[in-house]
Amino acid sequence: MDEATKQVFKGKFIVLTVILNIIILCVAMGAFILFRYSSSTTAIAIAVVLLAIALVSSLSFRKRYGATKLWLDEHA
Question: Mind listing the UniProt keywords for this protein, alphabetically (predicted)?
Fold first, then answer.
């Protein structure tokens, strides 16, 4: 693998890592808020928004992961 290809892979890997961290943090914060402040309607709304962000991010992650895997198979 040449240097330019390594740089492209590093960029793809960093993007996937950031998206995965967003998913984990949103699920953790949403679950914490949901269980800690379950009596407040505002807290429930915030938890639902965080879980929705995690869902959308996971769909984006899955799509990008598949594309990166195919790209890596071609350039390995």
Answer: Membrane, Transmembrane, Transmembrane helix
Alpha carbon distance 36, 64 (integer Å) = 33
Rg (CA), the chain: 17
Report whether pLDDT(76) > 90.
no
Model confidence pLDDT, tens digit, residues 17-30: 999 999 999 999 99
Look at residues 33, 31, 32 and name the one whose alpha carbon lies nearest to residue 42.
Answer: 33
Provide the whole-model pTM: 0.88
Nearest to 26 by CA among 63, 54, 61: 54
Tokens 């998206």 found at = 19
Contact 21, 46 (CB under 8 A): no
| Helix ranges (DSSP H) in 1-76 | 3-36, 41-75
